[in-house]
Design goal:
Elements lengths: L1 H15 L7 E7 L3 H15 L2 E7 L1 H9 L6 E4 L1 H9 L9 E6 L1 E6 L10 H10 L3 E4 L6 H13 L2 H4 L3 E4 L4 H6 L5 E5 H4 L5 E6 L8 E7 L6 H10 L3 H9 L2 E3 L3
Parallel strand pairs: 1-2, 1-3, 6-7, 6-8
Antiparallel strand pairs: 3-10, 4-10, 4-11, 5-8, 5-9
Length: 254
């Protein structure tokens, strides 16, 4: 099925390149998908002549904006968010496409000792011994922040971490670790890798790892649905999949 999807996607992408009139596509996307947008969009614009305008934020913040009437042509959010927008008449039925998934990792400042996160128990000890721990504020609606808050409760260490938690309201947690605001950070891997001065210690142990899937959906108010569909297709090409892996992102389906 994936081979068929890729072939169909490449055909749609190629057909878009012959479109006579260029379109402007406004894309609202979650922060962890930024690196993929940066990698794929330039080739898409060059091939099609279309222009892509992006706006990034937490999934929760973007949902509030869309529900408040924000205009967009395409959104890249979680599957649940896209499905909810369909129910509310903001996303076209059948347009959802699961593009990629991103796992959660641990970050320290480059040059700092790499803590042990090789097991769940080691991860717990590392957090408890750290002077400060940064992660996305769950109240900001970020997928990783919501998961981390629940994980700390699940591990039974939420009360101990709370006094030394550095809650980030948006952007890359790694930047705050590099700036010295926190000793250690927990964030989606695709948000850690591009930050200069940051070192990815590794992904969370498999038993507590969490993958956020990012899905695209076309707005019911899209100015050029065909152009938006072609942009979605461009994320399923072999080149795009290779770029995902380089940036700590995996295809949503094998």
């Amino acid at each position: 099925m994936r081979t068929i999807l890729i072939a169909a996607s490449m055909m749609a992408f190629a057909n878009a390149a012959t479109t006579a009139a260029a379109a402007e596509i406004k894309v609202l996307h979650g922060g962890a998908f930024t690196q993929m947008m940066t990698a794929i969009v330039p080739d898409f614009e060059k091939a099609t002549g279309n222009k892509v305008v992006t706006e990034r934020d937490t999934v929760g913040a973007l949902m509030k904006a869309i529900e408040g009437g924000a205009s967009f042509d395409m959104a890249v959010l979680t599957p649940e968010a896209i499905d909810e927008l369909f129910k509310k008449g903001r996303v076209v039925a059948g347009s959802r496409a699961d593009l990629a998934k991103v796992g959660v990792g641990v970050v320290v400042k480059s040059g700092a000792p790499r803590p042990d996160i090789g097991s769940v128990e080691a991860f717990k000890k590392t957090l408890l011994s750290a002077k400060s721990v940064a992660y996305i504020d769950p109240q900001a609606g970020g997928s990783s922040g919501i998961y981390v808050a629940r994980l700390l409760d699940r591990l039974g260490i939420a009360a101990e971490i709370k006094p030394k938690a550095v809650l980030i309201h948006g952007g890359a947690v790694a930047e705050h670790v590099v700036d010295g605001e926190a000793e250690i950070g927990i964030h989606q891997i695709s948000e850690i890798l591009p930050v200069k001065g940051a070192t990815l210690v590794g992904p969370l142990p498999q038993e507590i790892q969490n993958f956020t899937v990012y899905s695209a959906g076309i707005s019911t108010g899209a100015r050029d649905p065909g152009a938006a569909k072609a942009l979605i297709a461009s994320f399923a090409t072999p080149k795009a999949i290779a770029m995902m892996k380089e940036r700590g992102v995996a295809p949503a389906a094998p």
